[in-house]
Amino acid sequence: MHGERVLFLDGEALVIDKPAGLPVDPPRDGSLSLENHLESLKFGFQRWPKAVHRLDRDTSGCLLLSRNPKAHARLQQAFEQGLVSKRYVALLDGVVEGTSGLIEMALGKVSTAETGWRMVEDPDGKKSRTNWRVLEIKDGRSLVEFLPETGRTHQIRVHAASGLGAPVVGDGVYGKADGLGMMLHAQRLIVPRPGKPDVLAEAPLPERFAKAGFADEAASVTNPAPVAEVTTLDSTDD
């Protein structure tokens, strides 16, 4: 993992701009995953950093890793308490009705031998909430900002397809595959830390958004936040 992928770094936390196509967890087929890059992300520490949350394989953008066990517990707690702010940008296959709103949907997992597993609306499932806003509409597609309040599996992908009636471009599970890949990007991440500056990271929109014809909007997204100076925290701290 090259240094230019690092968006935030201090003694507790590391945020990288995960490329699309790289799974966080090792796949069953033994192909490359984030684990294969952890050695290069130690930055002077003895331990490998550890992912605090997950992004789907084909979702790019801000991924938070902890640098020691105590920090991991604190950062994970911030997610569990709903204190983390996340901003996603997605290109949807269709013109969305309206300009903004809130999607509320209970989600459950289903699985079939023919299509594998997916998340669907399920009254008995876990509640999920996502705020959304249209950024641009062009050529039958909608560029949309998503601000999730919860972090369910495939939440934004299901909310786009079932809640807005327009799946993410390139989503082969809830829509259809596309040569551009899946057009979903975790653009901003803010994690509060009591007594310390927030973990703040921003990942610029990848080139695939410009290839889709949304270069102007890609250029208007806030530039990445500067990488924080590495602290001298002892790498053996637990």
Measured between the Cα atoms of the first and last residue, the distance is: 25 Å
The largest β sheet comes out as: 11 strands, mixed
DSSP summary: helix tally: 4
The helix/strand series, from N terminus to C terminus, equals EEEEHEEEEEHEEHH
Number of DSSP-assigned strands? 11
Shape: globular
Unreliable stretches:
218-238
Which class of secondary structure composition applies to the elements? mainly beta
Strand content range: 35-45%
| Radius of gyration (Å) | 18 Å
Helix content estimate: 10-25%
Mean pLDDT: 90
Characterise the protein shown here.
The protein is mainly beta and 238 residues long. 13% of the residues lie in helices and 35% in strands. The chain is built from four helices and eleven strands. Strands 1, 2, 3, 4, 5, 6, 7, 8, 9, 10 and 11 form an eleven-stranded mixed sheet that branches. The longest helix has 12 residues, at 69-80. The protein is globular. The protein starts with 5 loop residues before the first strand and ends in an 18-residue tail after the last helix. The model is unreliable at 218-238 (pLDDT under 50).
List keywords for this structure.
238 residues, mainly beta, eleven-stranded mixed β-sheet, 13% helix, 35% strand, disordered C terminus
